[in-house]
Design goal:
Chain B: Keywords: Membrane, Mitochondrion, Mitochondrion outer membrane, Transmembrane, Transmembrane helix. Chain B: InterPro entries: Metaxin1/3 (IPR017410), Metaxin_GST (IPR033468), Mito_Protein_Transport_Metaxin (IPR050931), Thioredoxin-like_fold (IPR012336). Chain B: Involved in transport of proteins into the mitochondrion. Two copies of one chain form a homodimer. By secondary structure, chain A is mainly alpha-helical. Chain A is globular, with a radius of gyration of 22 Å. Chain A has a four-stranded mixed sheet. In chain A, strand 1, helix 1 (29-37) and strand 2 (43-46) form a beta-alpha-beta unit. Chain A contains ten helices and four strands. At the A-B interface, helix 3, helix 5 and helix 6 of A face helix 3, helix 5 and helix 6 of B.
Amino acid sequence: MEGDQDTSDFTLVTRKPCFGLPTACPNCLPAYIYLKLAQLPFQLAFNSTFPDSEELPYFESGTYVAYNNEDGGVIEKLEKDGIVNLDSQLQSLPDYLSLKALIVSWLDEALTYEIWVGTEGASASKIYYSDLPWVIGKVLFYKQTYLTKKRLGLTKENAEQREKLIYKRASEAYEALSTRLGEQKFLFEDRPSSLDAFFLSHMLFTIQVLPETSVLRHKLLEQSNLVRYAERLKSEFLEESSSSPSPPLHSFPSSFPGKGSKTKSKPKAEKSEEEKKFKKRARFFLAAQFLAVVIYVSVMGGVSSDEVEYEDDD
Amino acid sequence: MEGDQDTSDFTLVTRKPCFGLPTACPNCLPAYIYLKLAQLPFQLAFNSTFPDSEELPYFESGTYVAYNNEDGGVIEKLEKDGIVNLDSQLQSLPDYLSLKALIVSWLEEALTYEIWVGTEGVCASKIYYSDLPWVIGKVLFYKQTYLTKNRLGLTKENAEQREKLIYKRASEAYEALSTRLGEQKFLFEDRPLSLDAFFLSHMLFTIQVLPETSVLRRKLLEHSNLVRYAERLKSEFLEESSSSPSPPLHSFPSSFSGKGSKPKSKPKAEKSEEEKKFKKRARFFLAAQFLAVVIYVSVMGGGSSDEVEYEDDD
């Protein structure tokens, strides 16, 4: 890669791994894959706080930080700032942009729907909330499910129709991508691009994280050339230190324990420190919530028989 | 146009016209344009009730009705049911589909954002709520703005970033479509497709309805070949009975009064009947709301000094 930067200084901070993926968060995985496709050496670190933070994943190098909620995403920001760019000379092609829209809109929407609504969030709890106390995890899960339904425009009346439309668009997208890909190695001009990163991330997530009963997963596995594409890229770019070949994707069970990744000694120490801090904060939050609930119940219980006196305690 | 159907029986029911467009609703206009591109003769009728109904636009012919919230939309349903199909025998499905994703996801999102948030809903009030009593209109407007912000994933923290991303994607989409179109008459394979209906609807709406200060409108007008494309299609398919040529789109002021369309004697009688019914309903609703507010205020006001007695009136 260009520049005089000390390449051992690159760090990508994501959510923790699960389901055999280096990071189980669907927003973080594309950035990871992108850096791997670009063959840029980097360290992987994990951050378990703030399950709904929009800053993750972020990329840091010395004092430079690229958050995911700037410039449309980490990948876009890294390209714009010249750190790494797989898409040079591709961006002017109309095909590139419309394929990107297909992947980051229709497929992203389908995956979001499937994680939070279609499979009733079974996987989501594991990814985002497994480190939190059960009550807080449940509360945040319901809040996120509610927000996601609003984001997808789902209401009681239109839920069935919207689901049909979402699955239909995903089907059409898979077919179109399958037709376009054929037996090529990459989606575009025989070289890796950010579109491969986004699409591969979607595929790995759909196949490895979603349960076998998932409609979306079922539709994706029907396109065998897409599965071959994913297996090829996965074994070539994502698995460097395994001595035995990984099992083929189509036989991949849903909850496979993680395999060899980069050494995590530094991030591990950070992780347990942060974890302790977070657990303490979480316990305090839980206690405060419980106290609030108790106060509320006693106040409401007291209203119907006593006069209500409001006191503001700080 | 196969079959033995009596073609004078086709009716498209949409929201009312405004801003020089045959129907001012961005969901209804694509269906109208599609039928015009297909050169299928039909009557146009208007429905002013239920500003947030998802059934509009709907197409009826005798006992057959195609609502917009079935099968992914009126156009898709008409194609599926064989009434009319511009999209038959496509040569390149991936290209077609990814262009469609670009138009119905990125551009639609940008237009929705611009109508409800970017221009602070100035046009929205005119389109949806101008027939309602002011208070109800305002309430529905705020409700819809809130729902739209949720739909677009906007929060206080990310509003600026999301806006940048939405405009950036719209810019890129315009650029890609402009490059793809060149000086052709239609977007794809030299014949009108549903893509042209969707895109033309988006363009007409952006140019004729949004105010001149709109960022999105300005971005679109930068692509002169797109403007020429829209003018050509508009004059060839949408304006049949005008003796003088319509003013060029780029000089189109934002609120131009409507011009010659099909005679509307039947729909007009229906419209005033429905209008009366709706106005009566609206007045009753307004009175009920006011009564509810008064009761609530008096109850709350009485709560701190008297005992609270709950009575459920039906």
